[in-house]
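Escalated from tier 1: magnesium ion holo job.
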Amino acid sequence: MPQTVLIVDDESSIVFSLSEAMRDVGYKVITATNGEEAIREVKESSPDIVLLDLKLPDIDGLKVLKQIKDWDHNTPVIMMSAYVDIPTAVNATKMGAHSFVEKPLNVEKIKMDVQNTIENYDVRKELEQLKEIERFRQKINNPLEQILGNSPAIKKMKKTINKIVESRATTVLIRGESGTGKELVARAIHYAGVRKEKPFIDVNCTSIPDELLESELFGHERGAFTDAKKEKKGLFELSNGGTMFLDEIGDMKMAMQAKLLRVLQEKNFKRVGGTKQINVDVRIVAATNKDLEQAIGEGLFREDLYYRLNVVQVTCPPLRERHDDVLLLTRHFIDEFNRDFKKSVTKIHPDAEKLLLSYSWPGNVRELRNVLERAILLESEDVLLPQDLSISPSHQVTQLPQQTEQVEDVIPAGDELTLDDMEKWLIERTLANCAWNKNLVAKKLGINRTTLYTKIKKYNLERD
Ligand SMILES: Nc1ncnc2c1ncn2[C@@H]1O[C@H](COP(=O)(O)OP(=O)(O)OP(=O)(O)O)[C@@H](O)[C@H]1O
Ligand SMILES: [Mg+2]
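Tier 2 regenerated the structure:
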């Protein structure tokens, strides 16, 4: 759509020559010969720019300017006048006039002025809009804010993530039990950083069959293998400039590991069946819940790849080690599911709270979310009750009849028995009974956490 110029002047020869000039450049022209008409046109046609004479037969040009600006303060207005005294010019500028041109008019110069103003204005408008969208996006979508938690472990994790976000290229290894938020962290790293406009590609190393993974990642040329009827770009090419999230990296086969290592080192690769080197700039964020060190020991994971991936490590702490977060996340998920299911659960019954806190959450945040989804769906009152929580009792760490029996409950005996032996036995037993929930163990033993840690160290009770 051509841009519209409104020309306002009572001298028909000026209107005529300006109209010609503006049509020349491709603008649509509207004209007015007095102030009243001008204001009406502004309201009706929303011109992109106005050329306004200061001296009009009916209303003073400055008053027209004011009315135009009141209507839409973004419309640029160029004032025209035979006698421009400085106070009037200053006044007009204050009221938002874009510029002043003197009569007799230099039509060529006005043409250029109008073009520049419209162009700049367009860019400015676009920039304003982009900024506004960006502000909005950040408000609703600050990726780091989606990682909830106030526990020291989560705070520490967020600090590490912030450092990673600042650096553009570092390879990251995310570790943590199932459901602790590894994928959430990977996305936050991508969307909080400079790569956010580029793709985030999620590759689950276990869900793609081994024989397909190579061509999925690197692409293939036509005829590279029987099914390769057309050339195909691989995920590395598609994620160029962005992030590739290699989930469950611990399950990648050794042969594929070697190929991945090569790309990480060389930053280029060839498609399957191809000869051309393709360069890529992709940040790799890998995640696993496997014990990679053990896998290396067993010859299932390449040590060199491990070191290459493990430039920075983010550890997602298990939920049972952060009691405070359990309730915070519970409230968050209750809100979420209240909205989804149009419920209004506002309170947590003290017994439900106790149950939530005593449970060991083997499936971590994902399990908590699922448990609450079900609970809110079924709840018809405004209180979350313990019986709404479908938590498997075998994982309940405070009242554990079955588990207590499993743990050696016989007090060690013997003549040589020392107080230390007894203490070691008691700590070991309590740790096992509380699924290593150290807060709980410390509470049960009546000692503080630091003392507990010291004793765990002293008796060599660390879990490997
Ligand atoms: N700190 C957190 N704050 C809010 N939601 C979280 C947090 N951690 C995890 N979640 C939510 O819990 C669920 C599981 O998280 P995610 O899929 O990232 O875990 P994961 O570690 O990748 O699990 P898996 O190893 O099973 O793939 C998601 O719905 C996620 O949004
Ligand atoms: Mg995951």
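Residues 147-149, 176, 178-184, 289, 316, 365-366, 369 surround adenosine-5'-triphosphate (ligand 1) (CB under 6 Å).
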